[in-house]
Amino acid sequence: MNISQITRRDIVDAIAAEKINWSGRMEEPEFLSRLFNLTALPSTDGRFRDAAGDIWQHRINNFDWEDDWVFYDGRFNLMNGDDETFLAFLCETIHPVVRPDPAEAERLSQLYNQYLRNDGFQIVEKTRLSGKPVLLAGTLA
Fold first, then answer.
1. Average pLDDT along the chain, 141 residues, taken 10 residues at a time
2. Under the phi-then-psi rule, with left for phi > 0, alpha for psi from -120 to 50, and beta for the rest, what region is 131?
3. Whole-angstrom distance, CA of residue 133 vs CA of residue 127
4. What element of type H or E holds 36?
5. Helix pair angle (5-17, 102-116), 10° resolution
């Protein structure tokens, strides 16, 4: 089963429309390093060795990339890559370390699920961490 381009676009559009900070309370390099080895990914800016440097420069230091840049950056391939990476990204946006408010995490999981269900996926609670839900993606039963 595959998550369609339509579903991915709908989710990204919803994140943008609602002005959701996908990295939660973390800075973007810290958030992304939970999913990707940023020092192993190439730089798109000749001044830096790797993606970690790029992201710091353009999102922390200068803040001159759009808020939704990560969805269109080929190094992460969220719009066209495998389902597991896309779902892991979504789940990380609602992890209690990233988004400590359980009500907000639940609201976002419902937002994601309204689109993911169309392709046979859903995000559900798997366990709890310090009393807060940890949500993971899977296929619909």
1. 93 97 97 98 94 96 95 97 97 97 96 97 94 92 71
2. left
3. 6
4. none
5. 150
